[in-house]
Write a structure and sequence with these properties.
The complex is a heterotrimer.
Chain A lengths: L11 H8 L23 E3 L9 H5 L5 E7 L2 E7 L8 H5 L5 E3 L14 E4 L22
Antiparallel strand pairs in A: 1-4, 2-3, 3-5
Chain B lengths: L7 E5 L11 E7 L2 E8 L7 H6 L3 H9 L6 H16 L5 H29 L3 H22 L8 E2 L2 E2 L7 H25 L1 H7 L7 H6 L4 H5 L7 H4 L20 H24 L17 E9 L2 E9 L7 E5 L1 H13 L7 H7 L4 H4 L5 E3 L4 E3 L3 H14 L16
Antiparallel strand pairs in B: 1-2, 2-3, 4-5, 6-7, 7-8, 9-10
Helix pairs in contact in B: 2-3, 3-4, 4-5, 4-11, 4-13, 5-6, 6-11
Chain C lengths: L2 H9 L4 H22 L9 H10 L11 H19 L16 H21 L4 H32 L4 H10 L8 H14 L11 H4 L9 H26 L8 H25 L5 H29 L1
The chains are: A alpha+beta, B alpha+beta, C mainly alpha.
Chain lengths: 141, 410, 313
């Protein structure tokens, strides 16, 4: 390696070359940004499979989940996204694996109430194979 | 020159553009020269150690991770290692390798971040922009591997939560190649750019003896020739199975610390490549008990800033009895006052930045000094709570509507 | 000229309004170039104007301990001095708005006033960071003024006149002579970085060390005027350099002359932006050392060279 010569302005070539290249900035939000697969966004509960064991409630570090019983083998899950730390421990703890970490990240809200998302139990009791999809409220705005 | 020239007291912090996190350096200035520096810590104290005692071990993994954003996996891994040792768990080799890969990727991202911050502190914003642009490569890689750019949530008691698939491996190697080329350029810049060297060399001198006696750790100490690195001296995770050099330097100043960190970046690329090549097959986790049997353990980890020490005491329940964290910045902060002695005010930001301060990591304890007797005192939780309420009540805050936890009223 | 024409020329074109417009455009060029050199996008063209309008709309806070009069007058005096000096610089065509023998010295004097107002504004803000910034600003003045003045006076010595218009006419008549002044041009460019408080000499306003230096306590419309004054100072100094060191094309008629003027100013601003991107910030003692040991001697040699040349011309 040749001995380094100390001089001012070492970056000149790199700088001039940058002038003729596209900027490294992603023009979000004009250009949509997609998170990589496996990104831990807000959890989504497929409550039709929930058995009410409350493992997710117990293991959540932020105490953000509440499971309420609304009928025979029917449960409703509420996640407070304002408290959630998006760690995904609930998804790991669930024995029935009904919690899925989505890839949304544009979650900003002015009204804190809108951050509490409830996943309602399906209207009819779940059928043996497959069930009606749970009605969930996505964050608005 | 009369020695009674006026001393001006300049408050650097707690709010100051030079500091990324709040800390107070009260500087006695004479002209442009620094006479003395008084340090006050504690602005970022969040009661995390106490919070750990009230949450289960599984919850604590995530709490401890959030002590710091930049060295999050350091704290998480150190904590998990301590708990695993108390519980006597044998973590599978693949999990250890994955932990080490993520640890080195974190070191890479942290050192690149530091490079940009150092550039910014000396007014070289161009270096900031370029190094942080390159850092995006490793951030995107971490998002791909772990699901988040910071606070990776990869560790769990007994192993890791996520596996590295075969598709992800070429991406890891590609990013290592790209970053190695860029880091070579930054090393060239560090060795040749005249204005940068002028600002970094001869600044913040810390001799080897001072480094040892003041307890400096990490790159701060290694730049003063102190050959200590927890990864080699007390190998944890998979460090016993990779070969790497511990980078030391003899400059004993900020320039030395820059060279040490750049050297460590190159070593990290090599370590990650070795780990990926030799990644063993097998499970990624082992079942951990809910209740950890009584015992205690100390766990050491080489965070990007130096040696991070965690102490965990378990009492047989599912919540720890005591968690204590000694972050590397706490060990390095004491040497800052020594480094700034007889320096210029203009050098203060870069000297503080050169220890790579992470005050979020540091502020774990408060020492109550009884000023009349000059001895430290310990306050219990209730005493501290009542002290705080009294202090605010004397300043006019009305507590009649406040209900303390447990139902007591203030 | 009539009073009406004079008033129009002083206040609108090529006076105050024109200068403000070109000043804001110059700031945009500088920031966009700075960003593109750093591989970033940079601000849109209206950003400097938007910044000024935003600042004008903000609350102006005068610190309790500050000297109210000097604190509020300093920005306006800075802008006024810069605008006044602009009137004596020929831009396109050999005649500026006003000209008289010795106006070069007057222009240099007027251009010193903004630096003094930075010092006074900072000093009378009576806050720690402002005082530090003010003291650094005035120390920096001693460092860069000497080489800058020497470099700007050398071409005047060769031309044998203290009037900028006269110098322009002389060099238009002897076009090859401006090559003699190239070392002076280089010195002036480096010293200009000090005058305009740009990296590597932005010590008085070192954000990471002393918050904002002299401007720490300024907000609202006072800060807007200071920023306008700095932007316009960049244009005025660039125009001065163009007039003194690059005096060609002055006789080619108004339109071509205007375009050529813009090109020259743009080129100088581009070089300043490049230098800003390339270097780290020097410490005050390193800067003073550099100015007195490196560029002041070159400027001095330039003066000697011109004096010697004068004998044979």
């Amino acid at each position: 390696m040749k001995t380094p010569r100390r001089r001012p302005g070492v970056m000149l070539q790199t700088l001039l070359r940058s002038l003729f290249r596209r900027p490294a900035t992603t023009r979000y939000p004009y250009v949509p940004f997609v998170m990589p697969k496996g990104f831990r966004g807000p959890p989504r509960f497929h409550v039709e499979g929930c058995i009410g064991c409350q493992m997710c409630v117990r293991n959540c570090p932020a105490r953000a989940i509440t499971i309420t019983k609304v009928g025979e083998k029917r449960f409703e899950a509420t996640v407070d996204l304002g408290k959630c730390v998006y760690c995904g421990q609930c998804a790991d703890s669930c024995p029935k694996k009904i919690i899925e970490m989505t890839s949304e990240f544009e979650l900003a809200q002015i009204d804190k109430g809108k951050l509490r998302i409830t996943f309602h139990a399906p209207v009819a009791p779940p059928s043996p194979e497959g069930s009606a999809p749970a009605v969930s409220q996505p964050p608005s705005g | 020159m009369s020695d009674k020239k006026r001393i001006v007291q300049v408050p650097i912090g707690p709010q100051h553009p030079a500091l990324k996190e709040p800390e107070s350096f009260m500087v006695d200035l004479r002209g442009e020269k620094i006479d003395a520096v008084r340090l006050r810590l504690g602005y970022n104290h969040r009661g995390i150690e106490k919070g750990c005692e009230q949450r289960t071990y599984v919850q604590d993994v995530y709490l401890v991770e959030r002590i710091c954003g930049i060295c999050s996996t350091s704290h998480s891994t150190a904590f998990v290692q301590a708990v695993e040792e108390i519980a006597g768990l044998e973590v599978p080799r693949r999990a250890l390798y994955i932990r080490t890969i993520i640890a080195e990727l974190e070191r890479i991202h942290s050192h690149l971040l530091w490079l940009g911050v150092a550039g910014h502190e000396v007014g070289f914003d161009t270096l900031l922009m370029y190094s942080w642009r390159d850092r995006e490569a490793v951030m995107d890689l971490l998002a791909l591997l772990t699901g988040n750019r910071v606070n990776y949530g990869l560790n769990t008691i007994g192993g890791v939560r996520r596996d590295i698939t075969a598709e992800e491996i070429p991406e890891i190697l590609r990013v290592m190649d790209v970053l190695e080329e860029r880091t070579t350029y930054y090393i060239k810049l560090g060795l040749e750019e005249e204005t940068l060297i002028r600002r970094l060399a001869g600044v913040g001198k810390l001799s080897k003896e001072d480094a040892v006696s003041l307890g400096a750790v990490g790159p701060t100490a290694r730049a003063s020739g102190v050959d200590r690195d927890t990864r080699r001296d007390d190998p944890y995770a998979a460090y016993g199975e990779v070969s790497f050099k511990v980078v030391t330097d003899d400059h004993c100043d900020v320039y030395g610390r820059t060279l040490v960190r750049l050297g460590e970046l190159m070593e990290s690329y090599s370590i990650v490549r070795q780990l990926v090549k030799n990644l063993p097959e097998g499970p990624i986790t082992v079942k951990a008990p809910l209740r950890i049997p009584a015992g205690e353990a100390v766990s050491r980890y080489e965070a990007p800033r130096g040696e991070d020490v965690h102490y965990v005491q378990a009492n047989g329940t599912d919540k720890p009895e005591r968690v204590k964290v000694r972050a590397p910045t706490l060990a390095n902060t004491q040497s800052v006052a020594k480094m700034l002695e007889d320096g210029y005010l203009a050098d203060l930001p870069i000297v503080v930045a050169a220890i790579d301060p992470c005050f979020s990591c540091t502020d774990r304890t408060i020492s109550v000094l009884d000023t009349k007797r000059g001895t430290p005192r310990t306050l219990t939780w209730d005493e501290l709570s009542r002290y705080g309420i009294d202090w605010h009540r004397r300043r006019g805050i009305d507590f009649s509507k406040v209900v303390l936890s447990g139902g007591a009223r203030a | 000229m009539t009073a009406a024409t004079a008033l129009f020329q002083v206040l609108v074109f090529p006076g105050l309004v024109f200068l403000l417009g070109i000043g804001l455009a110059g700031e945009f060029v500088d920031r966009k170039l700075y960003a593109r050199l750093q591989n970033r996008v940079g601000p849109p063209w209206f950003q400097p104007l938007a910044d000024v309008l935003k600042l004008l709309g903000k609350e102006k806070v005068v610190p309790e301990e500050a000297d109210r009069r000097i604190f509020t007058l300093a920005p306006i005096v800075a802008l006024a001095a810069v605008a006044a000096s602009f009137l004596y610089i020929p831009m396109w065509g050999a005649m500026p708005v006003f000209a008289f023998e010795g106006d070069l010295v007057v222009v240099l004097y007027l251009l010193l006033i903004p630096s003094l107002t930075f010092f006074l504004g900072g000093w009378y803000s009576r806050s720690i960071f402002s005082t530090l910034g003010a003291v650094r600003a005035i120390t920096q003045v001693f460092a860069y003024e000497v080489p800058l003045l020497l470099a700007l006076l050398a071409p005047a010595l060769l031309a044998g006149t203290w009037s900028i218009a006269g110098m322009a006419a002389y060099y238009a008549a002897h076009p090859g002579y401006f090559l003699v002044n190239v070392p002076g041009l280089l010195v002036a460019l480096v010293a200009l970085l000090g005058k305009l408080e740009r990296v590597p000499f932005d010590i008085p306003e070192a954000e990471t060390e002393i918050v904002a230096g002299s401007f720490t306590e300024y907000s609202g419309r006072y800060l807007a005027f200071f920023r306008l004054a700095i932007d316009c100072e960049a244009i005025v100094c660039a125009s001065l350099l163009a007039a003194v060191f690059l005096p060609f094309g002055l006789g080619l008629g108004p339109w071509i002359g205007f375009v050529l003027y813009l090109a020259k100013v743009l080129a100088i601003l581009a070089v300043l932006a490049l230098l800003r991107t390339l270097f780290a910030r020097l410490r005050l003692d390193q800067m003073v050392d550099f100015c007195f040991r490196v560029i002041a001697p070159i400027a001095f040699l330039q003066v000697v060279l011109n004096l010697v040349l004068k004998e044979f011309v």
